[in-house]
Structures are given as structure tokens and as C-alpha cells.
Amino acid sequence: MSELPEYAERVLSLAERIPPGKVMTYGDVAEWLGDGGPRQVGRVMALYGGAVPWWRVVRADGRLLHGHERRALEHYRAEGTPLRPGDTPRVAMATARWDGVTHDT
User: Fold this and answer.
1) Looking at residues 7-34, what average pLDDT do you find?
2) What is d(CA 27, CA 105) in angstroms, rounded to the nearest whole number?
3) Which of 24, 48, 59, 84 shows the smallest number of beta carbons within 10 Å?
4) What pTM does this model have?
């Protein structure tokens, strides 16, 4: 098995730290790392994110990951992630977004 690129290791490590019921956007992750951008984070998640809680790294608008909506929704419901009301499920970014520091009790 080949070694992960250093940037991918950093992205995946942060994804693992996001608490259940919370999310970070692709841009949040890049900003927190001080490196790359949303597209680079998205690429890492697409290639290597299956081994971490991928559903906790989301689009800025809270839309569920295309093609994985059902699985993501199952995780969100199990973890109590705040969702916006409506016919099309979306993460309620105002309450679900994690700052990378704060821990809820």
C-alpha cells in the first residue's frame, strides 16, 4: 500500500477530529490547515475519504454529497446533525458548523 500524500494526511486527520453532529466545509478545512483550497480538500476526500467520517466535510451550502445522499442522511440522523427543514435535506450550517476548536459538552 502506498503512503498518502502529506496534504491528504492532514485533511483526513482533521476530518477525523470533527465531532459527531458537526461539520466543516471544504473551504473551512483548507482555511484551518492554512493550505490549499476547497477543491484540493474535495479531491482528497474523493480519493481517500472513505476511511474517515466523510459526511462531516460538506459543501458550503449544506447540500448532501451527490450520489451519497442516503448514506450521509443516515449518518446525520444517527449523530443528531442539525438539518434544515424542507423537502430536500441540507445541513443547517449555522448550527452544525464546527470551528475546529470548540468542543460541545
Assistant:
1) 97
2) 26
3) 84
4) 0.90
End-to-end CA distance of the chain: 38
| 25: Cβ contacts below 8 Å, ≥ 6 apart | 38, 57, 58, 59, 60, 93, 97
Question: Cell numbers at residue 45, please?
Answer: 476526500
Tell which residue, 18, 15, 16, 22, has the closest CA to residue 96.
Answer: 22
Instruction: Give me 56's grid cell.
Output: 462531516
CB atoms within 10 A of CB 14: 20
Residue type at 1 in one-letter notation: M
Q: Nearest CA to 64 among 36, 43, 93, 99?
A: 93
What residues form DSSP beta bridges with 24?
A: 57
